[in-house]
Amino acid sequence: MVRYINVKSRARTEFIDITEKIQEVLKETGIVSGICSLFVPHTTAAITINEGADPSVQRDIQTLLNKLIPFDGDYHHREGNSSAHIKASVIGVSGNVFIDEGRLVLGTWQSIFFCEFDGPRHRRVALKFISDK
Ligand code: ZN
Predict the structure, then answer these.
(1) How far is the CA of 48 from the centre of ligand 1 (A)?
(2) Which of the 8 DSSP states describes residue 81?
(3) Of 11, 131, 23, which Cα lies nearest the Cα of 59?
(4) Segment 11-18 mean pLDDT
(5) CB-CB contact of 94 with 101 (8 Å)
(6) How far apart are CA 72 and CA 11, in angstroms?
(7) 19 touches 106 (CB < 8 A)
(8) What is the 84 CA–ligand 1 centroid distance (Å)?
(9) pLDDT digits (tens, 9 = 90+) for 64-121
C-alpha cells in the first residue's frame, strides 16, 4: 500500500518541512521497526534531508541553486520551467529513512524537506512503509 501526504507550496521555490506529517502517517501504520521510503511523483519538485533547526540553511541552499541554475537561461524546454526540472534532478526525488521504536531515525538537526521549484502548487509525496518485524 502506497500512502500519500499533501503539500501546498506558497512560493516559486520553497522548502517545506514534512517530517511531522510523515511521522503522523507512520504512527497510523503502527509499524515500530522498518524503513520508510519516500518518493516525489513530480518533475519540478524534490526531496532532501538536511538541517531543520536553522532556516538559514534552507535559504542558503535555495540561493545557491538559483545562482547555479537560474530561472532564465539558454533552455529549450517550451514550458519555461527548465530550471525547476534541472533542480529537481540535481536534488533528487526519493529517499529512505529507517524506523525504530515507531519513530523516524533522523539526526538531531535533520528534517525531511519537500523542495518546491515551480510553485505555488498543490503537491503530494508518496510514502511506503515496510516493517521488518
Ligand atoms: Zn516543464
Answers:
(1) 21
(2) -
(3) 11
(4) 98
(5) no
(6) 17
(7) yes
(8) 8
(9) 999 999 999 999 999 999 999 999 999 999 999 999 999 999 999 999 999 999 999 9
